[in-house]
């Protein structure tokens, strides 16, 4: 997959099969569109192209409304590379670009700049200034500018149409199992281990204090989770705490993980963590003795969940 930092970097193709959108999460619905995009390009003897945007348009158009994303740009590129996509254009989204009208968007960008011969669009996709462009507009523009249009219906999982918004809702509820079903992969975060209070080791549960790499990436509901952790080519099971620590009178949010069956030094080391299942909320406990008792119960439940999920510990990945 070739990646371009803007439309200006892209060389027009003779036969481009194109889709556009933010594709945050690269979830199963997105993959349905991309599968159709790539198979159509192969059938036509053309090349598949995704035009996406960074930052997310809502961050530019509605900066007052907080928006956490499902993927960093690097994660999104890695997921898209797995789909067989030929070309990825990451167009900087600015206020000026947002004022591009729907006709100008189609004529100047898709036709003249990219070379679209067929446009494959997701269900209910809108484009151009104030989202004025629709599938009906595209059907009108197509014959004029010499391209075909195909609309892909929304993918249903358990009778629910998959969308990035519904995945964010599932994560906000702590339902990482539902989010995984919509995404097609386990939701996770990347971070680096920093020195913490070093209290966990005195309790028999040494924890790694993880600083997240991407502060714009969405974290699921606060609580304790069963997780899988990748470190230096090996995968470990573990349990993670996300939120305040009421037993220690700490109100700031912390993301801490305890790895099962692990020995070694993680300080300043990068980790990749994936959420397997939410175990419980953050609750006040009866001092350190109550915390130790709860951690022991958490470990029992986390190991059970990981065993059922087929997540081994201390194995190569």
Can you walk through the features of this model?
The chain is an alpha/beta fold. It has 9 helices and 15 strands. α7 runs antiparallel to α8. The mean pLDDT is 91.
Q: Helix/strand-derived class?
A: alpha/beta
What does the largest sheet look like? 6 strands, parallel
Percent helix range:
25-40%
Order of helices and strands: EEHEHHEHHEHEEEHHEEEEEEHE
Highest-level CATH class of the largest domain: Alpha Beta
What is the CATH architecture annotation of the largest domain?
3-Layer(aba) Sandwich
Number of extended strands: 15
Anisotropy-based shape: elongated
Superfamily (CATH H level) name of the largest domain: HUPs
Condensed summary:
By secondary structure, the protein is α/β, with parallel strands linked by helices.
Protein topology:
Blueprint lengths: L1 E3 L11 E5 L7 H17 L2 E8 L2 H5 L11 H9 L5 E6 L2 H4 L3 H13 L1 E7 L12 H11 L2 E5 L3 E2 L2 E2 L2 H9 L3 H8 L4 E7 L13 E5 L10 E9 L2 E12 L4 E10 L10 E11 L6 H23 L5 E2 L1
Parallel strand pairs: 1-4, 2-3, 2-5, 3-4, 5-6
Antiparallel strand pairs: 7-8, 9-10, 9-14, 10-13, 11-12, 11-14, 12-13, 12-15
Helix pairs in contact: 5-6, 7-8
Keywords for this structure?
single chain, 317 residues, alpha/beta, Rossmann fold, Elongation Factor Tu (Ef-tu), domain 3, 2 domains, six-stranded parallel sheet, 9 helices, 15 strands, elongated
């Amino acid at each position: 997959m070739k990646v371009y930092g803007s439309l200006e970097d892209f060389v027009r193709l003779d036969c481009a099969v194109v889709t556009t959108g933010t594709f945050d999460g690269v979830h199963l619905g997105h993959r349905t569109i991309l599968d159709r995009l790539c198979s159509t390009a192969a059938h036509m003897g053309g090349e598949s192209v995704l035009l996406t945007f960074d930052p997310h348009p809502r961050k530019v158009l509605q900066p007052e409304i907080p928006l956490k994303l499902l993927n960093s740009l690097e994660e999104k590129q890695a997921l898209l590379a797995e789909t067989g996509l030929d070309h990825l254009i990451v167009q900087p989204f600015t206020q000026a670009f947002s004022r591009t009208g729907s006709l100008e968007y189609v004529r100047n960008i898709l036709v003249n700049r990219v070379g679209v011969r067929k446009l494959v669009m997701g269900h209910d996709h809108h484009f151009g200034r104030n989202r004025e462009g629709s599938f009906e507009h595209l059907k009108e523009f197509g014959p004029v500018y010499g391209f075909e249009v195909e609309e892909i219906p929304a993918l249903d999982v358990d009778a629910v149409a998959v969308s990035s918004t519904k995945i964010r809702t599932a994560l906000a509820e702590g339902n990482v199992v539902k989010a995984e079903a919509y995404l097609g992969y386990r939701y996770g975060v990347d971070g680096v281990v920093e020195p913490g209070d070093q209290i966990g080791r005195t309790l028999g549960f040494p924890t790694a204090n993880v600083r997240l790499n991407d502060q714009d990436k969405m974290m699921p509901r606060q609580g304790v989770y069963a997780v899988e952790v990748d470190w230096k080519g090996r995968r470990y099971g573990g349990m993670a705490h996300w939120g305040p620590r009421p037993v220690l009178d700490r109100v700031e949010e912390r993301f801490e993980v305890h790895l099962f069956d692990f020995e070694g030094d993680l300080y300043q080391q990068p980790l990749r963590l994936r959420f397997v299942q939410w175990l419980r909320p953050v609750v006040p406990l009866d001092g350190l003795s109550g915390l130790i008792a709860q951690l022991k119960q958490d470990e029992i439940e986390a190991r059970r969940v990981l065993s059922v999920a087929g997540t081994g510990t201390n194995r190569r990945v």
